[in-house]
Prior knowledge:
With 248 residues, this protein is an alpha/beta fold.
Amino acid sequence: MNLTFRRLAMVFGLLVAAAWPILAQSSPKIITIEIDSVVHPLTAEIVDSGLKQAEEAGAEAVLIRLNTPGGMLAATEDIIQSIVGSKIPVVTYVTPSGGKAASAGFMILMAGDVAAMAPGTNTGAATPVMMGGGEIDETMKRKVENDAAAAMRAITDKRGRNTELAQEAVTEARSFTEEEALESNLIDLIASNEQLLTELNGRTVMRFDGTEKVLTTEGAVLEPVELNYRQRVLLPLTDPSLAFILTV
Length: 248
């Protein structure tokens, strides 16, 4: 009896092992990227790496989780260019509840194929300011604001979002709760972390190149972006609170 049971168990184990690659391939994969601090050049590098990894893995989508006070405009522009040029659909998502995508975070949120926010989050206030809190020359300030506003016009018009309010987030530092953003057609949906994949499943998204893609996210496997050694070492050092501690 015991011998028969062991043989059956062995056969079952072999069947599961043989079937596992097929089962794994049948589950859609989503590469996740966290932007949970100030946006800087390393952030842009990691986003670009994640999008390339997603393409190589044949991922269904890339999920960029946002909880940031903002950051550098040049790095933000690099991230936006990577998102709109991605061959894989990108979901930008403000999370967790109580978090925000301010300034640069707002601009990244608007760039996503799908823009989503968790309950109790906010976004906006994307008016460019000088690093360190200094004053910007009025002419330069107007130039930078106009450039940022033009970028928001181009992105939101292509994504079918509220171009006027997106510009006001830049020129008038407008901010929005998740409910206000949804009602104003700045984002596509509100969902908790538990609900997000369900809400995305079956959604048709219009890619930046005009093509359409139906998302299949039911039972998706979430796989964090793989950081290289340099990125793993440098990323903790970009935390502004750590920078303060190191320079006191």
